[in-house]
């Protein structure tokens, strides 16, 4: 996995955690859901990169 891709995916995951926390604090369910979606998306991208690395 390239270092840049790994950092981008981690940043997306952390951004999602921030959105979820802000949604919790403001009781904004839409923002909570968006944060959870961003976290899942970042995790899936990391998993995909790891699979690609295995087959190189």
3D structure, described in words:
The chain has 56 residues and is mainly α. It has one domain. It contains 2 helices and no strands. Helix 1 packs antiparallel against helix 2. The model has no long low-confidence stretch (mean pLDDT 90).
How are the SSEs placed, and which strands pair?
Blueprint: H1 3-26, H2 29-54
Summarize the structure.
This protein has 56 residues and is mainly alpha-helical.
Number of helices: 2
Radius of gyration: 13 Å
Main sheet specs = none
For the record, give the distance between the C-alpha atoms at the N and C termini, rounded to a whole number.
10 Å
**How many distinct beta strands?**
0
**Would you identify the regions where 5 or more consecutive residues have pLDDT less than 50?**
none
Helix content: over 70%
Broad structural category:
mainly alpha
SSE topology string = HH
State the domain count.
1
Shape annotation: elongated
Report the mean per-residue pLDDT as an integer.
Answer: 90
Strand-residue fraction? under 5%
């Amino acid at each position: 996995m390239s270092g840049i891709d790994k950092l981008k995916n981690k940043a997306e995951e952390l951004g999602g955690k921030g959105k979820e926390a802000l949604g919790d604090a403001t009781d904004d369910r839409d923002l909570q859901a968006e944060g959870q979606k961003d976290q899942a998306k970042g995790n899936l991208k990391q998993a995909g990169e790891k699979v690609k690395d295995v087959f190189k």
